[in-house]
Amino acid sequence: MKRFRVAAAAVLVTALALTGCSSNKKETEAVKETQAPAVEAASEAASEAVSEAAAAAEAVQTEAAAAVEAAQTEAAEAVEAVETEAAVEAVETEAAVEAVETEAEETIEEVMTEAEAAIEEALTEAEAILAETEAEKALEEFLTEAEAVAEAIETEAEAVAETAETEAEAVVEAVETEAEIVVEVAETEAEEAVEAAETEAEEAVEAAETEAEEVVVEVAETEAEAVVEVAETEAEEVVVEVAETEAEAVVEVAETEAEAAASVETEAEAAEDVMSYDEYMAAQDDDPVVIEAYVQAKQALYEDNPDVGCDTATIYAQDEDGAYFLYSVPVSPEVYEKLEEGTKIRVRGYKSTWAGEVEIVANDDLAEVEIIDGESYVAEPTDVTDLLGDEDAMSAVMNQKVAFKDMTVEFIEGGNETEAEVGSAAGVAYLYSWDGSGSEGDDLYFNASKDGKLYTFVVESYLCGPDSDVYKAVKELKEGDTIDMEGFLYWYEGMQPHITSVTVK
């Protein structure tokens, strides 16, 4: 490039010299002639310079093109490197972001878990404190009410005792007064009788003395004495008998009134102890309980039950608020015969829970079931079909009389090999005992479904034996039958109703 510029300058100087150094033609021509060789040389030099300049320019252009290409290549490689590095960084960044997000999610989850645990623990503690507070408040209210009731009953008992004592004293005083009057009247009558007898005897003696001799007088005197003695004896016997009869009547009346007063006091004490259904359910296991309810059904009488030491029966009872399962409570044969459906009873025992079943068992005194005359109540079955599958809802109606609608009978697995083969072939839908190991007269187990879920039902043989309609009906069930059922919602590690009625639709 430098050489091209020098040659161009030389050409330009020469041209200027040719055109500008002479002012007239002659001078110009002279100069041409004089300078022709120099001009020619300069021209050749300029041509060479131009050629060199062109060659240099071409070389420069080539170098420039190579440099541009090299720069473009380097730029492309740099861009590619940058892009590669950016991609790597992007991947690493994405992985890092993903790791951070994962770690954040795990941290959030841990924090949420710890928060939920803390909240649950706080709620549990709050519920415990609330329950304890409510229990203390309920206990305080119960004790206050119990003291008030006890004081009222004590006052009433004292009043009744005082009234009975006053009435007894009045009766005794009246009896004594009446007896004294009777005795006085009897004595007066006896004296009058004796006086009359003496007068009559005197008259007889006087007559005898007048009419007869001394022998006759002696006989008359003897007879008179005999008459007087008889009269005195009869008078005394009459007085004593009348007094004893009246005294016995008065004593009997007093005893009757005393017994009535004692009965009123006993009834008052019994009424004080009786729990409501809510109070019974709030009691703890092994707490003593006293309830009044109405018999809905009873199992067979167990004479001389060795587990208890007396005759017992298991009873299904219910009132308007809830139901009770009375397991092996003391019942004499005479009382058992009177336990008809609807009979009101009072039961004393302990609350207990066995395999989830809430029940009442015999207390240490083996207090017998008491029959309360007058009132009667028979519960209507509660339809619990829609509650199937909801264990909490079902447990809330435990032991009540219930109904199941439009259930589908299903084949029941189990039993010995022969029974299983028969069941598979003929569609038999029941088993003797829970595992099929029993025989005629044992409990019947069968399955029925609702909305695709399977449930187990039992015909309790002590409640509904082989001669009952429901026992016979279950033995006729076939897989696929649609049935309605009624029974009692017994519990054994979950719902296990004791069925008393089956109707095939």
Topology:
Layout (H helix, E strand, L loop, with lengths): L1 H19 L4 H187 L2 H60 L3 H6 L5 E11 L3 E4 L4 E9 L4 E8 L2 H6 L4 E12 L2 E6 L7 E7 L5 E2 L7 H5 L5 E10 L6 H10 L4 E2 L11 E7 L2 E7 L9 H7 L6 E7 L9 E7 L1
Parallel strand pairs: 8-9
Antiparallel strand pairs: 1-3, 1-5, 2-3, 3-4, 5-6, 5-7, 9-11, 9-13, 10-11, 11-12, 13-14
Can you describe this structure?
By secondary structure, the chain is an alpha+beta fold. Among the domains are: 163-273; 284-376, OB fold (Dihydrolipoamide Acetyltransferase, E2P); 382-504, OB fold (Dihydrolipoamide Acetyltransferase, E2P). The protein has eight helices and 14 strands. The protein has helices at residues 2-20, 25-211, 214-273, 277-282, 333-338, 391-395, 417-426, 469-475; strands at 288-298, 302-305, 310-318, 323-330, 343-354, 357-362, 370-376, 382-383, 401-410, 431-432, 444-450, 453-459, 482-488, 498-504. Strands 1, 2, 3, 4, 5, 6 and 7 form a seven-stranded antiparallel β-sheet that branches. Strands 8, 9, 10, 11, 12, 13 and 14 form a seven-stranded mixed β-sheet that branches. The longest helix is centred in the N-terminal third of the chain and has 187 residues, at 25-211.
What's the gist of this structure?
The protein has 505 residues and is of the alpha+beta class. It is built from eight helices and 14 strands.
Percent range for β-strand residues: 15-25%
Main sheet overview: 7 strands, antiparallel
Tell me the helix content: 55-70%
What is the overall silhouette?
Answer: elongated
Mean pLDDT: 75
What is the CATH topology of the domain at 382-504?
Answer: OB fold (Dihydrolipoamide Acetyltransferase, E2P)
Q: Helices and strands: which structural class?
A: alpha+beta
CATH class of the domain at 382-504: Mainly Beta
Number of helices: 8
Give the termini separation: 117 Å
SSE series:
HHHHEEEEHEEEEHEHEEEHEE
Tally of extended strands? 14
Q: Gyration radius, to the nearest Å? A: 63 Å
Q: Tell me the CATH superfamily of the domain at 382-504.
A: Nucleic acid-binding proteins
Task: List low-confidence stretches.
Answer: 1-28, 415-426
Named CATH architecture of the domain at 382-504: Beta Barrel
